[in-house]
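Notebook B, p. 112. Complex prediction, attempt 2.
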Amino acid sequence: DVVLTQSPATLSVTPGERISLSCRASESVDTYLHWYQQKPNESPRLLIKYASQSISGIPSRFSGSGSGTDFTLSINGVELEDLSIYYCQQGNSLPHTFGAGTKLELK
Amino acid sequence: EVQLVESGGGLVQPGRSLKLSCAASGFTFSNYYMAWVRQAPTKGLEWVASITNSGGSTYYRDSVKGRFTISRDNAKSTLYLQMDSLRSEDTATYYCTRTTSIWFAYWGQGTLVTVSS
């Protein structure tokens, strides 16, 4: 199974700053890497597909990059509503796997 | 608007069975792959099973293979997950998702399954 390692586990942020979250795969997943946001007591929602492709309805401050084994989710100007857990997921091979998540909290 | 509404969760004893349902609306159900993803309490996300749009092919994670069965009724726009021989480690919120087979585009609100004596 492909293991996805997300770092950091927790990130303390200040509104307005630009931040980057990392997701590293145990083997190449090409660009079959997707990002989700899960707010407290809510279902996850898709943020980014294919490593860098935007999703309709998602604010433009969210962006993704990377290929192969190293991926980054960036938030350009964090807002309070972005305090959530972020998960990466690979769809290159079965079983589909998720990272353990990065939790954004207020500094 | 895409809507996925799960039902059927609850408290069940180890070794017993439970069947989850997911009623879909807002899209042509028979055109899309579907999947179940679960999340144990305070834990991360875990893919459980997927099914093609026709229902002709199904895929499972190893830990549920032979115990869980994913199925669908395209006439009723409903997805199912039959869960047999339940174990304590199956305790989780189960999400119904519309999937491309590569990513999970839409998620239901989830239904909680608790396996305990």
